[in-house]
What we know:
The complex is a heterodimer.
Chain A lengths: L3 E3 L2 E5 L4 E6 L6 E7 L6 E6 L5 E4 L2 E6 L4 E6 L8 E11 L2 E6 L3 E6 L1
Chain B lengths: L2 E5 L2 E4 L5 E8 L5 E7 L5 E8 L5 E2 L8 E7 L2 E6 L8 E7 L4 H4 L2 E2 L3 E5 L1
Amino acid sequence: QQPVQSPQAVILREGEDAVINCSSSKALYSVHWYRQKHGEAPVFLMILLKGGEQKGHDKISASFNEKKQQSSLYLTASQLSYSGTYFCGTEIIATGGFKTIFGAGTRLFVKA
Amino acid sequence: GAVVSQHPSRVICKSGTSVKIECRSLDFQATTMFWYRQFPKQSLMLMATSNEGSKATYEQGVEKDKFLINHASLTLSTLTVTSAHPEDSSFYICSAWDRDKDRYGYTFGSGTRLTVV
């Protein structure tokens, strides 16, 4: 039930790009993306609802292929502040409402 | 933006005792809250969905009698770890959504690091 995230870890130099993928075996209502710094709570980045939807702000964007039940997060021209663990959360319709299951996370480290 | 207040942030308790963790939604009403558990360098594992005024829905493998969830009001959900053991030591975190979750996603509490000695 847990979505599969890849890669598990990425090391980038400042200014480089990265792509993080998330795939699910279940039909999805939406996909959320969060970033978590060590010892802190996850912070919401964006949510994608419709098949083929793409969103972005600043240099972080994401896409959602509803048919393939996959989503990708794109980080361009990475900054030191992008370091952290990125989680995709796949939201499914469950008994009584919705619930979100998180992937195992992708640890991103950006170095100067 | 929406704020979810969670406390305590850290707690150390003796084996066999119970610990209560509170999660409050500030300036918004949360009919549903989620409780997660996170082990070091691992993902957020959904434990249960807490619904105001009704019984919580637990995920498979989560002991209802051990992890008591109460959602008595629209702004407060509590998780009580009963008869805690060292293997219950973990980072517990709650989340809720404000207004339109399809735009703003979920807001997480700051988490509670539980250490059972």
